Amino acid sequence: MLTQGDDVEAHALAERGWSISAIARHLERDRKTVRAYVTGERTAGVRRSAMPDPLTPFVPYLAARFVDDPHLWLTALFDEVIPLGYPRSYPSFVRAVRAADHVALAKVSHTPSSASRTSQAKLALLAGGTPYAQRLSSRRRSPRQSESLNGGLART
Length: 156
Prior knowledge:
single chain, 156 residues, mainly alpha, rod-shaped
């Protein structure tokens, strides 16, 4: 890993026409390391993570839950992913969801009209897209709730 100063010097020397090997000898660093910084593959001061992101396996589930309920609290979502095997704490979960890599979760496509949003939620609920939705659909409903889910058509 190059320091910020070494990175600036390596870029300045590369702009002057120095070869990668000459820059590496000057900075007393490995040639492949210098090449990675000069080409932009690496950034000074930023380490690569040794572990994969623990939230990655849960991204499809989280996206489905945000489609089911766009105003879902992260505490409720955390309670759902713990039994599914999420290995970290709540603060780590919140940090990971809010990270730039998972911005797609917040950008769930919403339709402009509230009526179509409601019908999409009903369809997702009836389809049982997530375990949470399946739990909701398996609960006993009053005739009025069933009527509203069926679009006003009463069962006979």
